[in-house]
# Entry
Amino acid sequence: MYSSKPPRFILRLLKWFCRPGYHIDIEGDLLEFYERNVEQYGKRKADRLLFKEILLLFRPSMIRQLSFGSRVIQTSLLTNYVKISWRSILRQKLYSFFNVAGLVMGITCFILISIFVSHERSFDEFYENIDNIYHVYEYEYAPGDAYLGSDCYAVTPAQLASTLTADYPEVVHATTVSEKEVLLSYQKDNRWYEKGLFTDPTFFRLFSHPKFIEGDAQTAFEHPASIVLTESLAAKVFPSGNAIGQSLTYQEKPHLITGIVKDPPVNSTFQFSFIANLQDDLNYQSEFKKQKWDGSNYYTFFSLSPSADPDLLQQKMDDLVDRYWTEDRPYALDYYFQPFSDIHLHTNLNNDFGIKGNAQQIYLFITVSILILVLAGINYINLSIARSMIRFKEVGIRKSFGAHRKQLLFQFLLESQMLAILAFGISLVIAWFLLPSFGAMLNRQLTLNFSNTPDLLPALTGTVLLLGFFTGIYPALVISSPSAIDIIKGRPHDKIQGKGTQNWLVIFQYAVSIAMVICTLIMLQQFQFISNKELGFEKEQILTLEVPDREILRKFDIIKEEWLANPDIIQVGTSQNLPHNIQSGTVVNDDKDGDPSDDLAIYRLRADRDFLEIFDLELLAGNTLPKTPHKGENPECLINEAAARALGLSPNEAVGQMLTDDSPPRNYRRIIGVVKDFHMHDMRSKISPLLIETKSYFQFISIKAHAHNMPELLRFLDESIKKHSHYPVSFQFMDDRINRLYESEQKKAKLFGSLSLLTIIIASLGLYGLAALNAHQKVKEIGIRKVLGASVANILVLISGNFLKLIAGGFIIAIPIAWISMQGWLENYAYRVSMNWLTFLIVGLAALTLALLTVGGQSMKAALVNPVDCLRNE
Amino acid sequence: MKRFQIGEFEELVLLTVGILDGNAYGVTIRDEIEDRLSRTVSVGALQTTLRRLEKKGFLESNHGEGSEPRGGRPKLFFTLTASGKKSLDYVRATRNELWEALPQTINNLS
# Structure
């Protein structure tokens, strides 16, 4: 009969708060409902309903009376508690300082990380219908390893949005967006290089932001060549106002300003300074007209009617590609969609847009901040227990005057709350000062603004109060436990409860901090390894320029000639990507039958011969690319070793082979050489097959130069390029670009390192306090031992030995934790250091030494004391 | 007659207890209200009201037998007291008075 039982904790909860007289029959009623609900809805929903009912029972008339012994309101006692607590805080300045300092560090960390987390979670929340907005992405079933680490692409074809609205009635609005930086000019000589969104009028219907300040969403894009500026761009271009009706020129065409909108907030994934009409864009027009499904260049968003089921729509979209793309396809692909609210934290797509967060990183930070808070709490617990004997007399007297144990508990809890709240106040101030630099470490603009995130202050206050409660309750129980008679009679105090707990807490503290330090060291080793690793191409004394402007492409021959005339410039080459980050790829086949089973997914670098020379790519077989590309059939190409291996050929065999695209038109390329493998992505990915061929179009210019006067050379290059282009250009050193691959990762590691340092400091503070108290308590024992002939060394071992054991215990626990978590972290890298037991040993020894120093001073003081001084009073 | 004044939900609960006539405990009362008035009632709201009515002396309670689906917990049966009945009468009388005072024009409204 009684088939499924509700979770026990729910009923316990009821029993805990419900009035004793009411409890039993209410529980009976609830169980009867529960039984019925299980039959009707299943166990999970029944559990949920039961929980809800019980929460709703939590009301004044139902909950048991709180009582602290007597019901008299004890205002006078309350002031006495506060006074006594305050005095005891002041009397023991050192311990109070340790307590508050530890708590302040822990809480400050917690505040900072909470602000960061709530900032990350607030992304895009300001859209009114955010829950109904989705972003479409493409999944490509390409052969071989995932391309650039993912087989999903954020971009889709131009006509997808209109197809969705036409084919699926549950799609309310669908819009196409692209992001681009362009040079806007006003009256010829005023130019701004700005990032804009290019989209259609539906955008404003789909997204409730940005809000229009002037103009309106309905008419903004009535005129095809129109543009809407953000407030800040409008103020920059037209300081005197009156932007509406003026026009800005880009891509050699004037665009009418039809509106001014609010700037996107910092927590918006879309960041832009203007919105322009995409339907005016020639590329978009032609792609839209061709209805081709193999070119994906645009982001597609749609809103779903609130009653529609997204899973059902996903099923219906399964055959979308098959219906429209009927020609021979080189690879299968499907369209999926994700909620817009997931875009910031939960995506890993190629060619994605906007500011990206990382959910895992957030979980890590939350965990670490909670750990630090716990460590600080442990300090409080340990120090309070250790000095509990000081408070015993007070407890004894209070008890003999008739104090209930509950009153004493309340008193000590009040004391811990006072300290926690004091620490919270100090932490808020410190966090406010630290916030800008903390935000810079995470590439975010963080502000301490409780009105934007209304949940934050209550959540923080709640956490602090909980912290005060949990750190206070255990010492309070210990201190208030002995009976008045025991205390007054002076029964031995050394049977303090909680000695074992204290030891475990210290072990835990050291386990956490040692594990974190080990992790930091291994991260540092990995970054060291990365920056020392031979990349396989030259990176010194190479200047690079990303070409913003077609004008430069057109005039490149003249520019190159001009540059080569400068004696400091050795060589100038062009390419579509730089060798550390190759973004393009294709699928090829090495035979003529077009059998798709041995297709090879291959990265593609388009570059000229001079580029290969500049980066000094080593040739293993065959020849380098010709000076002028072969016109007509069978253009030449190079491949890397990995590609030769993938084709099952040695470098020498590969030369002379043909490669073909696996979809029509089947162009044949002739392999004329094989280059040695080099790292063409960051160290997270392994070296994959690569094809190098010549194309006249390029995106990067690389310059090999003599080093003696770089500033002079940069000035020369700047001036020379200014003659040909209005775009702002900046030359960057190749090695800087490579370092930037790991910049954000390194910043995070630095942050993690500081946090681990903090845990060590907190643990040491606690240990110092414990050692001081321990030495103080054992002062008579030491005196007697010394009188009986113990040496200073004996005493030292007596006092420090136990602590060192605890730290050794913490170290042993820390080893597997650090090992497993770092194993996981290192697996992100295809090229990684192997973990060295020496690292672990060094950290362990360092922790022991530090602890010895912390404890040693106190032990030494105790050991050197003259026995007469401490025994005289007896 | 302030002593007999009760709120709308209290009135519903009193009436339902009366209707159930001896078989009124948490489960049946809730079912009855939900069936007749198709309005959802939380156990919390119901129990609070029952206890309040008991305290005011409009209801009496006594423990019944425990039974299987309740995990052996006893049922708490509620019955209407004389003053409970009186308060229902009072409510009804005041309502009627007011209804009768309503002018014809208002009655024709809908």
